[in-house]
Amino acid sequence: MVDCSRLCRNLVLSSSLQSLSLSRVSNWQNLTNLIESGWKLKSLSLCQCNIDFSDIELLVKSLRSNASSITDLSLSNNNLSEDSVIKLGGALLSELFSLTILDLSNNPLSLTCIVCLIKMLHFNTVLRVLDIRACLKRDDQECKKAIVDLIRMNEFVEIRWND
Question: Does the keyword Cytoplasm apply (predicted)?
Fold first, then answer.
């Protein structure tokens, strides 16, 4: 894991940066202050950053700020807990979010998580792509049925998954 404290200090100087991909980075939470301060980042990837529930709470708080301009968020490969996905899904019910792409691929999603995401997509008119590839156990027929129903109900959102 890499510590990104120094990186964050240097990024403050770069107002033109639009995309940032951090993989296996610890202490990425320093970025939340930049997000809230009006930093014009469009795409943020936090893959394999060991994100837990308190991290999701912090990220949601930052994304809710009026200054957040992030439209593409990847949280793939983080082994997100059910509570984390539910917190994120609940937050996405708000139209204040500017996210159009959400990548949750390679995280274990339960039926409860899928139902939460279905509810979120029913009310969120901004999100256009939801990536949930490699999130289900092979034999989880209930989740697969819920996803098929989700796809049927949502003609405006591209749902990426593998059946």
Answer: yes
CATH number, domain 2-160: 3.80.10.10
Is the Cβ–Cβ distance between 48 and 77 less than 8 Å? yes
Instruction: Tell me the residue type at 162.
Output: N
Would you give per-residue pLDDT tens digits along the chain (163 residues)?
Answer: 555 666 666 665 566 778 888 888 777 777 777 777 777 788 999 999 999 999 999 998 888 875 578 899 999 999 999 999 999 998 888 765 788 999 999 999 888 898 888 888 888 888 999 999 998 876 778 888 888 887 777 778 888 888 6
List, in sequence order, every beta strand (DSSP E) within the chain.
2-3, 19-23, 25-26, 43-47, 72-74, 101-103, 129-131, 158-160
Domain boundaries, the chain: 2-160
Element (H, E) at 54: helix 53-64
pTM score: 0.86
Count of residues in the chain: 163
Q: Which residues pair with 160 in a beta bridge?
A: 131
C-beta of residue 97 within 8 angstroms of C-beta of residue 91: yes
Determine the Cα–Cα distance for residues 91 and 84; give it in Å rounded to an integer: 11
Residue 68: φ, ψ to 5°: -65, 130
